[in-house]
Amino acid sequence: MTKERYSILIALFALFVLYPGKSTAQNMPPIADAGLPRYAAYDPVVLDGTGSYDPDSSGSLSYAWRQIGGPPVVIIDANTATPTIGGSAQTGMGRRGLIAHWALDETEGSVAYDSAGGKDGTLNGDPAWQSTAGQIDGALAFDGTDDYVNTDFVLNPAVGAFSVFAWVKGGMPGQVIFSQAGLSDWLGADTTSGSLMTELKFIGKASRPLQSQTVITDGNWHRIGLVWDGSNGILFLYVDGVEVAADAYDKGYLVGDLQIGAGKNLDPGTFWSGLIDDVRIYNRALAKMGDFIQTDAIQECEFELVVSDGELTSLPDTVKVIVVPAFGNRLPELKNDSFDPDKPTFIFFGGGDCVTGPPKYAQSSFRDPPWFMRANIIEFPKGYWPDNSTGPPTYYQCGDMIIVYLSAVAPDYKQLIQSVGHSTGGMPAIDVGIHLNLTYADRRYAVNRVTLLDCGCRTASGYSSCIDQFLVNSVDGEQCWVDNYESGAGEWLSLNGLSVYATFGHVDFWSWYGGSLTNADTNTFNNGVVAGAYWSVAGPGKNLQLGPEPGRTYTFQWHGSRSSGHMDFYDEPNHPGRLPEPVTLVGPSDGAIVDATGAVLSCEVSENTVGYQLLFGRDPYHMVYLFSDTPSAPGESVTAFPFEQCWWTVRAYDEYGSTIHADPMHIKAESVIAQTIENATTGQIYASIQQAINDALAGDAIVVSPGAYQYLENINFKGKNITLRSTDPNDSAVVAATVINGGHRGPVVTFSGGEEASCVLAGFTITGGIVGISCRDASPTIRNCTIESSGPNAIEFWEGYEPTIIDCTILGQVVEVNDPTLVAHWKLDETEGDIAYDSAGENDGTLYGDPVWEPTTGQIDGALAFDGTDDYVSTDFVLNPADGAFSVFAWIKEGAPGQVIISQADRTVFSATLPGSTWLSTDPAEGKFMTELQGLDRAGCPLVSQTLITDGNWHRVGLTWDGSNRVLYVDGVEVAKDTQPQFGSSRGGLYIGAGNNLEPGSFFSGLIDDVRIYNRTVTP
């Protein structure tokens, strides 16, 4: 619901309170509710406006939907509560009907591989592989003279419906992108303006090529397409998902080979000069008029709903339909008779050949009645395959399939989700968890648990990296952990999860796990040494959340067969952890009324626990109000509650930080001391701070009440420039009583989406969490807060993202922390030797000449002194400036005009010299800071500032490029800026203290310290 709507409701409410006698004369406007965001792929999507209503029921509602954002689609029945997105809005670039696909992602060789149909292409001339410059990974560069790719016959365009699509960049009028040898140019640029056209045409003397008015040779990436919907039908041209031309077509038979990047007869002037990427041919029509083309990227369509009661019209409400990237046709299937939104979901990936999961491995024991009764079971009976045809396989597209399915059957899903993989299936199991939690980050469809059953194919370190990535991407406080079952022991038991070693056969793991839900030997608590389905989303321990370092804590061993045996410790002295027992609540019955005399809300003793937290929530899914935290079960009578309709539970925790809670119960409280989380802009009340942030718009203010209850949350501002404050940030008593207490994993408060100074956090006590506040990609304002954490750092930030801190009490360190975008960092703090170590990557530098280590005279600890004659440091290749945004910074002292601080060396390949460039230097006349890194066309030129840096003082110098803007900095101040076209590709190593040719006069004379390179733009 939009904030404007709530403002009107508040005003109307005030009118009724102040002037009750006039209430019967008022006609309140209706409220539009466009529903929750949806995810789409193949199936039709029905929008849902049934939540709309008229507060005074003055008339029946009428509905008006329209699209306000994203690729254009057709809305069918737009004047109903539940219209359908029509046509092929949800069909598109999957693998159904894909008969040829040249990804053009190779890095060498003379073959362009077809990943769909085996029609590999042969390179002619010398087109150049561009491994990172494509629209989707790599691309192929054509010189416009004699470069092209030819393939065998793929498709006769006269036989029936077909589609062909490609990404292109560059080109000139008259050049051809795709042709059938000796017969017809399928896709090309017209000879006058460079607009997209095709020579395929209707039979007859009056027929002529189909030409659009849309230029594709403007130097930008365009996705161009040609679609025919069948015999005697219509031929369509598309550019960037939009139909640009259409005409009748019924061509005669064409059976020639195909050519990419050249005309049908290889005529001069028809060869393409530019990049071509991701060429696909389908034997079906992918799009019709008014629809968009599904691509390999996430697309968002936004729709607006307005309702009317016949007299008044509502304010608009909006909803997004997120169209997922392309995926194949081996879709998941529900094994239950129907999906039950009140049950958790269990997703199983069978074994395979370390790349694909064939159908024969899809069968599992999770189809047994005990599983069906407790969970929705999803499997891949047609098998699964990786996203990519080259490189280590990933399976993120399986996550796209899952979120599309769940969004269709459970638009407001609130239950747990577990992904399980056996053998090869471990790769898609963990990849789905990463993809859903990191890419979509939607609490409704977050993966809570990943189970690995004797998984190989990736190394232990490979799985460990994936598990760590999954664990740090919990969504809005949702459970998120891993259990791992292995027959190999050793290094696998170090994986960061609950680890179990068993000696039965590899193929028995999934059947052991499936049977463990009901097997007497595996379905008992066993003093906390228990694993398997006991802790699954369908088991009695479903509410378990492992602590921050489970792999160092819980390691068990199964003794016996897949059907009988017992669980024990694997290595108790080093892994002594026993898991906490599920909690049983003791207190008023579910739905009971609690009067002003209060009630004791407690639980039975939970084995292996060291503390109990009594929690309240506005609903059972946001238990974020912490009433008490005691070493024994709660015993204090609660006489006042934060809201009338109140949910409660007890969460127990062990000495390692693992927690488990009972399913919440409901009471109705007669004594209420309100403690609210309110969007002051809209008047909306929320169940959690994170929920309020998720719904907020830029500029909104969220106000959090103080009280007896702490807010037990880890929150993320998600890039929103909003204000989150207590009721009075200037009152120290209010600050002390408004506490956000984070969990053991991650920061309590995270700013990571580019939040700016207008994003304000004010008037809180921040405690718990491994870090109090993290500003890793943002520069918010933090004022009147008390900040601490369970770790040494109260506030952490990346280079260029230090927050503005005003009147705060900070109980801990404020530190700059490791930044994953920092790709190289030479601190130059060594005291001896000929190696300058790279602390961020593996690009250690070698000293040449005789530069001198100065361990105490640097700006930051030590530095390296260069004599200006022959001293320099040489490193391996670090970064290609043509690949995208980057930054380079260094501290320097002294130097002379014309000397170079950092350059990229020339590189010789066979007999050709690929030039490098001077990144940071002084101009040869006066010693002003400059760069010679520039574009390749006529507009390319050095950028020279007016700031002298050779004055004998320390200066921090830097260059950033965001893809178009080139900026020079000195001592944190922008001193020069311009716009430059794409830099030339350069893959040489770096020189610190010398020019790219080591020419005399370019060697630096002075001190250089703390050299850093980032693959992002940094504002110092």
Features:
1020 residues, mainly beta, globular
Describe the structure in your own words.
With 1020 residues, the protein is mainly beta. 8% of the residues lie in helices and 35% in strands. Strands 23-25-24-26-27-28-29-31-32 form a nine-stranded mixed sheet, with helices on both faces. Strands 5, 8, 9, 11, 16, 17, 18 and 20 form an eight-stranded antiparallel sheet that branches. A hairpin with a 5-residue loop joins strand 13 (184-189) and strand 14 (195-198). The protein is built from eight helices and 77 strands. The chain is globular and about 90 Å long.
Summarize the structure.
With 1020 residues, the protein is mainly beta. The chain starts with a helix and ends in a 6-residue tail after the last strand.
Strand content: 25-35%
Radius of gyration computed on alpha carbons? 32 Å
Low-confidence stretches: 1-25, 87-94, 287-292
Helix content: under 10%
Give the distance, in angstroms, between the N- and C-terminal Cα atoms.
39 Å
Tally of strands: 77
Mean pLDDT: 88
- Give the strand line-up of the largest sheet: 23-25-24-26-27-28-29-31-32
Helix-strand category = mainly beta
Principal-axes geometry comes out as globular
Q: Major sheet: size, sense and barrel closure?
A: 9 strands, mixed
Q: Count of DSSP helices?
A: 8
Helix/strand layout:
Blueprint: H1 3-18, E1 38-40, E2 62-69, E3 75-76, E4 84-85, E5 98-102, E6 111-112, E7 121-124, E8 128-130, E9 139-143, E10 148-151, E11 162-170, E12 176-180, E13 184-189, E14 195-198, E15 210-215, E16 222-228, E17 234-239, E18 242-248, E19 258-260, E20 273-282, E21 299-308, E22 317-323, E23 333-334, E24 345-349, H2 369-374, E25 376-379, H3 396-409, E26 417-422, H4 426-440, E27 449-453, H5 460-471, E28 481-486, E29 498-502, H6 509-515, E30 544-545, E31 555-560, E32 565-569, E33 585-586, E34 592-594, E35 599-600, E36 602-603, E37 611-617, E38 625-630, E39 637-638, E40 645-653, E41 659-661, E42 665-669, E43 677-679, E44 684-685, H7 689-695, E45 701-704, E46 710-711, E47 715-716, E48 723-726, H8 732-737, E49 739-742, E50 747-751, E51 760-762, E52 765-768, E53 771-775, E54 781-783, E55 786-787, E56 793-797, E57 804-806, E58 809-810, E59 813-816, E60 822-826, E61 835-836, E62 845-848, E63 852-854, E64 863-867, E65 872-874, E66 886-894, E67 900-904, E68 907-909, E69 912-914, E70 917-922, E71 928-931, E72 943-948, ...
Parallel strand pairs: 1-22, 24-25, 24-26, 26-27, 27-28, 28-29, 29-31, 34-42, 45-48, 47-50, 48-51, 49-52, 50-53, 51-54, 52-55, 53-56, 54-57, 55-58, 56-59
Antiparallel strand pairs: 2-21, 3-4, 5-20, 6-7, 7-10, 8-9, 9-20, 10-19, 11-16, 11-20, 12-13, 12-19, 13-14, 14-15, 16-17, 17-18, 21-22, 23-25, 30-41, 31-32, 33-36, 35-39, 37-38, 37-40, 38-46, 40-41, 40-42, 43-44, 43-45, 60-77, 61-62, 62-65, 63-64, 64-77, 65-76, 66-73, 66-77, 67-70, 67-76, 68-69, ...
